[in-house]
Amino acid sequence: MERLLRIDRRIIFAFVAVAVIVSLLLEFRLPVPATPPVENIFSKIESLPQGAHLLLAFDYDPSSKEELQPMAIALLHHCYQKNLRVIGMTLWPGGTGLAEQAVTQVASQYGKKNGEDYVFLGYKPGVASLIINMGEDLYTAFPKDFYGNDTSTLPALKGVESLKDIDYVIDLAAGATIETWIAFGKEKYRFEMGAGCTAVIGPDLYPFLDSRQINGLMAGLKGAAEYESLVGRKAQATEGMRPQSVTHVLVIVFILFSNAVFILSGGLRTVRRGK
Known about the structure:
Layout: H1 2-5, H2 9-25, H3 36-47, E1 53-59, H4 65-81, E2 85-90, H5 96-109, E3 118-123, H6 128-136, H7 138-141, E4 168-173, H8 177-189, E5 193-197, H9 202-210, E6 217-219, H10 220-231, H11 236-264, H12 267-274
Parallel strand pairs: 1-2, 1-4, 2-3, 4-5, 5-6
């Protein structure tokens, strides 16, 4: 028991490494049932008519790519399947390349054309002030798109003058931009909004979900995997859930094992005597 209490932490690291490697090499599927917050986003997009405008904000950079890029790709597949008009943009300068890559690559799979079926506005500084500007006049906020085209001439933006005309807004964020979109966009211009975020900030956003300031929320890799399941395109997030789930199970086993060893070694009696 004494030896188990003093186990070298490198042995634990080795177990974790082996678990991750084995789960990556072996092909097996784990069920990823969709939770209501994720289903709400899916249902909202399903309810939109063909030609409706959906604004997708890619507010993250490469450091959060593994969690948020799969969300973006799954959402884009759904939007293009439904023949929605996608308006892509980012408030993060580091997210421009990832956003442009996702929008154009998924669009090419459906034969969608830039300027006709989707628009990528790119990045512009300002954050809160930019959102307010978009809420008043989209074309003064973005007179040109990412490629230098005059936005007022793009067929994909026909019928859109400001955020008030957007049918649905989704912000995928690695920081505090969801709160900014809510405070300076959603509450002021009254559009419907969903959100996706990294797992670490997910718990902070549930109050906005409970207050219905956002109608749905995807949190972390699990949220992305749930949406992939709903869309019927299991990809990177679903694959990533396998090593993540196996590692979580291993951590739980370690916790149970360490507590059992602690109790059997008389540690609990020692703690009680100390009190």
